[in-house]
Amino acid sequence: MRRLVILGSTGSIGTQALELLAAADDLELVALSADRRWEELIAQASRHGVRRVAIADEESAEQARASWDGEVLSGPEALAQLILGAEPDLVLNAIVGSAGLAATVITLTEGIDLALANKESLVVGGELVIELAAATGARLLPVDSEHSALYQLIGSEKGQSPGTIERLTLTASGGPFRGRSRAELESVTVEEALDHPTWKMGGKISIDSATLMNKGLEVIEAHQLFGTSYDDVEVVIHPQSVVHAMISLSDGSSLAHLGYPDMKVPIAYALHWPQRAKLELPQLNLEQLGSLEFEAVDNDAFPCLGLALAAGRAGGTAPCVLNAANEVAVAAFLDRRCSFLQIAEVIEATLAAAEIEQSYSFATLIEADRAARGAAAAHLTALA
Ligand code: NAD
Ligand code: MG
Taking CB atoms and a 6 Å cutoff, what residues make up the pocket around ligand 1? Predict the structure, then answer.
């Protein structure tokens, strides 16, 4: 039995992971965490026989303590205490946003294998995260569907000489606004932006998918995970989300990873690696699919992908600033405090005014994240 901790268990990825556990007799769930939905968290803990949880929001933690006899950790050290105390073999980090970086760092520092859904960890602190994993020998298993696909594709070429893999391609569904011009995006609503055509996900990543920032974050994630230069990571719009990623090889051939869009597949892959799980999911039927479409990204209507690429190439704290400004702007859009197009404006203005440092220490990243959040909030106020 491998001991598993799930962080962010009340979210979209977290709940799907819990559903998978019902059929997984090789994994023992030992701890859970969430931000504030304590009743749901306690119900999950009770259902899975877990006696220890961490809750980020102090008030929610108090309420949980008053109504449950298990251990409820809170405060700045809570995640560290939860992870270290649980002695896990594997941690699934399904926290959303840069709030997930600390858990990634703690897990890898301890040499514990990490199933990483929290792509923001790799965007904000990719160098630090990859170096920690290399130093301690902890395995980093991507949960993001495109990166899970790439992990498998690149793994299949293990042993080939360097340079065999020439390019990586990430597909993007294009989100709910695919095909719209910039002018047509002026007055789109939160409800329209949340209505993703192929994936059902948490609020923040759904908006990121609508702006294409999600694909920008994913290009940085791929660069960090696989050490591929930005010149060699390509993005293509693919509305059906059936081809998840592709690698192009030196002999002119390409390998792609296909499947119906379902996050249970990459979550199960990361939880069970190196085994492959048996899931009751439909096999791909090419006749039924008929055709697959691919098209170029419209960078004028969707500037966030370009902003992310520029921040990735600038390096240092630039991706951290990009991510923080995006989190602040997306929260404001979800609160109806800014328009859809203003998300990119806030990010661009925050990046332009930020002092970028070429340092990857945890303290530098936390400070850059804090400062960028303040600057982005000020840009939002100026827009209002
Ligand atoms: P979500 O909003 O549905 O859930 C987020 C979870 O994180 C919740 O359990 C919440 O309680 C917890 N959380 C938030 N802030 C926290 C904090 N400060 N401390 C502790 N816990 C906190 O998000 P999601 O859609 O499940 O996405 C989670 C991560 O996985 C994101 O980084 C996202 O980019 C990535 N991801 C998600 C999908 C998907 O299909 N949902 C696909 C690929 C990657
Ligand atoms: Mg993805």
Answer: 8-14, 33-35, 37, 56, 94-96, 99, 117-120, 144, 199, 201-205, 263
Give the CATH number of the domain where residue 329 resides: 1.10.1740.10
Q: Which atom of ligand 1 is least distant from the CA of 99?
A: 18
**199 pLDDT above the threshold of 90:** no
pTM over 0.70: yes
Residue 290 pLDDT greater than 90, yes or no? yes
Q: Kindly report the CATH number assigned to the domain that includes residue 59.
A: 3.40.50.720
Ligand 2 centroid to residue 44 C-alpha, Å: 26
Edge-first strand order for the sheet with 140-142 is 71-73, 52-55, 27-34, 2-7, 90-93, 113-116, 140-142
What is the spatial distance between Cα 105 and Cα 226, in angstroms, rounded to a whole number? Answer: 18
Q: Which of 95, 105, 123, 207 to mutate to test the pocket of ligand 1 (most atoms within 8 A of CB)?
A: 95
